[in-house]
From TrEMBL:
Domain of life: Eukaryota
Required cofactor names: pyridoxal 5'-phosphate
UniProt entry keywords in alphabetical sequence: Amino-acid biosynthesis, Aminotransferase, Branched-chain amino acid biosynthesis, Pyridoxal phosphate, Transferase
Annotated pathway: Amino-acid biosynthesis; L-isoleucine biosynthesis; L-isoleucine from 2-oxobutanoate: step 4/4; Amino-acid biosynthesis; L-valine biosynthesis; L-valine from pyruvate: step 4/4; Amino-acid biosynthesis; L-leucine biosynthesis; L-leucine from 3-methyl-2-oxobutanoate: step 4/4; Amino-acid biosynthesis; L-methionine biosynthesis via salvage pathway; L-methionine from S-methyl-5-thio-alpha-D-ribose 1-phosphate: step 6/6
Natural source organism: Candida viswanathii
A molecular function (GO) term: L-isoleucine-2-oxoglutarate transaminase activity
Name of the molecule in the record: Branched-chain-amino-acid aminotransferase
NCBIfam families reported for this sequence: ilvE_II, PRK13357.1
Secretion signal, residue range per the UniProt entry: none
A cellular-component GO term for this protein: mitochondrion
Length: 392
């Protein structure tokens, strides 16, 4: 039921209080039930893997209702969902998702990378669109079970992984605009290779200033499906003009925010010869990327402090243009779960071109270094804090 009228709202909010005083079930991984497939799918060789096109044998689902809370978690054979055409997700975009990856290490163990960060972000997204929150550690335990069951689908090799897509949708069947009283949390998994079919190659960007990805007070810092569909058209327009991705600007100042569906980093040289790695600050418009956070932390820890400053600050396309003119633009790259890091070699802006150096041919030196630092942790070659979790 939905709160459609002011009167209805006041009556139902009283019910809601009573309802909340009774106990609703938390998400509990120990209640998991597993139904295994009787028709296992063939595993594709690495060279036939296309991002997000094929899926493992099983999926995880947990239903939630306002009355009872989180139901029994179920792992069952991968299947279609059956939803009433009026279901609220189809009309008002009650949908959020995460992107995580699982890696096979040299001992055949399956590892996820900083899943706790994804759980925090997923709960923040849920809270913003009135979907239920949950205990992130319990979801991680359930994801571990799915990974153990489908471990033969995790491809081996550098650049190969199992992309995990935790998703939550509002499933109340009603056209009323209101708080969902039913939801479905599910996780599917897709064996993947490098995100771009071209592999680790630099991309050219068109700086978009006629459309914005996010705005102050909006939801750009939440991983909502509704943030992604409106990004396609500017990307298509950039592609028509020969660019591979678009660089999102904001405001008359031309602040650089993100690139495509990724966070973006620029490395500058200062007049005194020191260097700065800069990315936009988490001001509510920027997605708090796990890769972004990892790069910032590793660079702050590992780059020489007398040589590098690591900045989260506002910076503009004009600053990048100036730096390039002065020969002080060192390199630039996008950062996200899907592509990890994506080198940039050119930016088109209002008919002008900014060439971004790629000192190693396919990327800049720092881009390659951070990509390798992260890869070593993801594949369990180097332990770092609790960033890599073995599924069991
Ligand atoms: C990522 O870079 O991790 C993304 O968010 C891309 C994804 C939407 C495919």
């Amino acid at each position: 039921m939905f709160n459609r009228t002011v009167l209805g709202r006041s009556i139902r909010s009283a019910q809601w209080i009573r309802h909340n005083s009774s106990k609703v079930a938390p998400l509990d991984a120990s209640r998991l039930t597993i139904e295994k497939t009787t028709t296992p799918k063939p595993k594709l060789p690495n060279d036939q893997l296309v991002f997000g096109k094929t899926f493992t044998d099983h999926m995880l689902e947990i239903e939630w209702t306002k009355e009872k809370g989180w139901d029994v978690p179920k792992i069952s054979p991968y299947h279609n969902l059956s939803l009433d055409p009026s279901t609220i997700v189809f009309h008002y975009a009650f949908e959020l998702f995460e992107g995580m990856k699982a890696y096979k290490d040299a001992n055949g163990l399956i590892r996820t990378f900083r899943g706790d960060k994804n759980m925090i972000r997923m709960n923040n997204s849920a809270e913003r669109i009135a979907l239920p929150k949950f205990d992130g550690e319990e979801l991680q335990k359930l994801i571990d079970k799915l990974l153990v069951l489908d471990q033969d689908f995790v491809p081996e090799g550098k650049g190969y992984s199992l992309y995990l897509r935790p998703t939550m949708i509002g499933t109340s069947a009603s056209l009323g605009v209101g708080t969902p009283d039913r939801a479905l949390l599910y996780v599917i998994a897709s064996p993947v290779g490098p995100y771009y079919s071209s592999g680790f190659k630099p991309v050219s960007l068109e700086a978009t200033d006629y459309a914005v990805r996010a705005w102050p007070g909006g939801v750009g810092d939440k991983k909502l499906g509704a943030n992604y569909a409106p990004c396609i058209k500017p990307q298509l327009e950039a592609a028509q003009r020969g660019f591979q991705q678009n660089l999102w600007l904001f405001g008359d100042e031309g602040y650089i925010t993100e690139v495509g569906t990724m966070n973006v980093f620029f490395a500058f040289e200062n007049d005194d010869g020191t260097k700065e790695l800069v990315t936009a600050p988490l001001d509510g418009m920027i997605l708090p990327g796990v890769t972004r956070d990892s790069i910032l932390e590793l660079c702050r820890e590992r780059l020489p402090k007398d040589e590098w400053t690591i900045s989260e600050r506002k910076f503009t396309i004009h600053e990048v243009e100036e730096k390039a003119k002065k020969g002080q633009l060192i390199e630039a790259f996008g950062a996200g779960t899907a592509a990890v890091v994506s080198p940039i070699n050119h930016i088109g802006f209002r008919g002008r071109g900014i060439d971004v150096p790629v000192s190693l041919g396919t990327s800049g030196d720092l881009t390659a270094t951070v990509a390798e630092w992260i890869r070593q942790i993801q594949y369990g070659e180097r332990e770092y804090k609790n960033w890599s979790r073995v599924a069991q």
